[in-house]
Amino acid sequence: MSSNGFNAVHFVTVRPDGDREFVYYRAGSSPSTIKPEELNPEYISNAKIMHCSGIAQAISPSSRATVLAAAQIAHLNGVPVSYDPNYRHQLWNPSEAREAMEELMPYVDIFLPSAPADSKVLFETEDPEKVIQESNRRGVETVVVTLGEDGALIGAENEVIQLDPMPAGPVIDTTGAGDSFKGGFIHGFLEGKSIAESALIGNVCAGITITGRGALNPMPYRKKVYDKVRNLR
After folding, report:
1. What is the pTM of this model?
2. Residues 46-102: pLDDT tens digits?
3. Is 84 an annotated catalytic residue?
4. Quick one: CATH architecture of 109-233?
5. Catalytic residue among 127, 164, 179, 227
6. Of 99, 135, 153, 215, which residue is the least packed, with the fewest Cβ within 10 Å?
7. Where are the domains of the chain?
């Protein structure tokens, strides 16, 4: 807990063409002041999973160092590490983002980039299969590439799974769709589901989220997701 700084905030504007514009107020915020020595190793080592975000890496050098330290603690204690690079050009430049990704990848079990937004910057490609190959080469076993309106491509356990989008109704706002998919996938992983089942849960979560406005309010509860999953089997 910090008494310095302020809570970070960002605003999302959905333009008439459906594209989105982000404005961030994060520089100097309380989260950006966190340091590795403030971590609680026992808390991390008892977690079910450690999730890392590229945004947390981007907001300050100390925050980036803290993300790395947390991933190292998790890895050392057998806690799975998931990582969403979530590149935002407003927060840092491509070379910094690539460097931060490379330092973290040795500790990552589940990599969750988007294409082309992340892949073009971090891997200089828009091809999700190449992203999976490059991530595997770095030692990451499970790679989930979200593709916006083209769905997702998942590489894991020596197979590649292609998923098409599954809107649960008219598409109102795609803000939070990728986060919802990734959250659903991680949920499935923690529940011991197969890769295919976890991907289906993520896809259903995203399909429900895009039928409402905003990033948080439309996100579905567990029962709604599982009811939909059962109907799709």
Report:
1. 0.90
2. 999 999 999 999 999 999 999 999 999 999 999 999 999 999 998 899 999 999 999
3. no
4. 3-Layer(aba) Sandwich (3.40)
5. 179
6. 99
7. 33-108, 109-233
